[in-house]
């Protein structure tokens, strides 16, 4: 996900983090300078849903304007060789090999 607060704010004429911080405080969301820096720079460490709600209300925007999906950055699932192995008749193999129990020779029994 890409955090897009700065662009969303700029589209509404808010150009400084301090101005955004003041507007949020007017709506009851007091944010420290360090957290505001993270939000404004585009790399927030975390954000709570109720904070996101206040930001959206302050800017008059939807969450999708602040959080932009980047599906191309998500790793694709790894294909295992056994998943692709086919039987002699062309059907895919039916899962992992069966587990065979081994003898417990040489081990002591648990206490009674």
Structural commentary:
The protein is 39% helix and 4% strand. It has six helices and two strands. It has helices at residues 5-10, 17-26, 33-41, 49-59, 63-66, 81-84; strands spanning 2-3, 67-68. The longest helix is centred in the middle third of the chain and has 11 residues, at 49-59. The radius of gyration is 27 Å and the shape is elongated.
Kindly provide the radius of gyration, computed on alpha-carbon positions and rounded to a whole number of angstroms.
27 Å
Provide the low-confidence segments as ranges. none
Calculate the terminal CA-CA distance, rounded to whole Å. Answer: 55 Å
Classification by helices and strands = mainly alpha
What is the CATH topology assignment of the domain at 2-72?
434 Repressor (Amino-terminal Domain)
CATH architecture of the domain at 2-72: Orthogonal Bundle
Strand content: under 5%
Helix content: 25-40%
* Helix-strand sequence: EHHHHHEH
What would the average pLDDT be, to the nearest integer?
85
Tell me, what's the shape?
elongated
CATH evolutionary superfamily of the domain at 2-72: lambda repressor-like DNA-binding domains
